Amino acid sequence: MMNTSTEHYHQLARDAFMPQPGRIVEIADMTAKDRYFRVELEKPLGHRPGQFVMVSVMGVGEAPISISNGPGDDNTLEMVIRRIGRLTQVIHDLKVGDTMGIRGPYGSWFDLENFYGRDVLFVAGGLGLVPLRSLIVPVLAEADRFGKITLISGCRNPAEELYCDQLNEWTEAGLEVIRLVDCTENMPWQFGVGLVTAPIPKLKLDPGKTVAALCGPPVMYKFVIAALGARDVSYNNIYVDLERRMKCGVGKCGHCQINKIYCCQDGPVFRFSDLALLPEAL
Ligand SMILES: Cc1cc2nc3c(=O)[nH]c(=O)nc-3n(C[C@H](O)[C@H](O)[C@H](O)COP(=O)(O)OP(=O)(O)OC[C@H]3O[C@@H](n4cnc5c(N)ncnc54)[C@H](O)[C@@H]3O)c2cc1C
What residues contact 185, with CB distance under 8 A and at least 6 apart? Predict the structure, then answer.
């Protein structure tokens, strides 16, 4: 027979893995393989910028997905999901009114206290704009509490750009948005061509005042951090949002381990100076 503390432990374990139903209220295609989902939740999410949820479809599986809306809108969850394999294909086949399982929010977050009073530089590569949006939204909502706000957003080609309308709105609202593609591939494109590192050497930037938040493919970090380092931005003021393959989201399974840390619990958001001694991090 289980004693009370064992029962309590089992209950906690069950709760930790128990999803709540999320009803899809809006779906929109962002690119050929990226689909936007707005989901209504029964219980408030209470998330912070940069956190993620575990999204499941019964009988198929579960995956970590970044939250793209800013905090505050608690019963709503916005996500952009790229069709890449079995689960994401099934999620793409869901319709408005269907339900998916949501548990979380999980992981560390971008703490706004570290950004107040500073110039803020966001660097987003591809899908990295999705979690960064959950930080950009609250920063813009209180823009007078920050210095200069700049976003460098890059993707492979014009057809892969996410949140195009939102980028236009942010530009109209006065945010400096530098939009880049690796290559136009002969598609119409009125913005820049080049990698997200390209504008950094010429950026008007006060290194002592700047804090940077980066999210993109693994290969991006090394080069962006080197470019920021060359402009004397301190590693203490560079935050990175790292994705690792993860299963449980609660530091149990070890899939996302980087040296001694678990990306799902200690991350996905890290101050770069805390990662500098972990050889497997970047
Ligand atoms: C913290 C975090 C946040 C994420 N946020 C988002 C998001 O906002 N939107 C989004 O579309 N995706 C996001 N992902 C990635 C997403 O979890 C995977 O794409 C998903 O698990 C794939 O599931 P699947 O069953 O469709 O693919 P599978 O059938 O499991 O895999 C298909 C192919 O993709 C590869 N693959 C699967 N997952 C990953 C991964 N994490 N990294 C590299 N290769 C992988 C597999 O090796 C395989 O080749 C995030 C991942 C993490 C860790």
Answer: 157, 158, 159
* Atom of ligand 1 minimally distant from the CA of 130: 8
Among the atoms of ligand 1, which is closest to the Cα of residue 89?
26
* 3-state DSSP of 214-260: EECCHHHHHHHHHHHHHCCCCHHHEEEECCCCCCCCCCCCCCCEECC
All CATH 2.40.30.10 domain ranges of the chain, comma separated, are: 4-106
Distance 135 CA to ligand 1 centre (A): 21
Q: Is the preceding omega at residue 268 within 30 degrees of 0, hence cis?
A: yes
Q: Where in the chain is the domain with CATH 3.40.50.80?
A: 112-275
- Among protein residues, the one whose CA lies closest to atom 21 of ligand 1: 63
> 112-275 domain in CATH 3.90.1570.10?
no
Q: What is the CATH number of domain 4-106?
A: 2.40.30.10
Q: Determine contact, residues 104/20, Cβ cutoff 8 Å.
A: no
Q: How far apart are CA 66 and CA 136, in angstroms?
A: 14
78 lines ligand 1 (CB under 6 A): no
Which tens digit of pLDDT belongs to each residue from 108-163? 899 999 999 999 999 999 999 999 999 999 999 999 999 999 999 999 999 999 99
Q: Is 130 in the pocket of ligand 1 (CB under 6 A)?
A: yes
What percent of the chain clears pLDDT 90, i.e. is strictly above it? 72
Which pLDDT band holds residue 248 (cuts at 50, 70, 90)? low
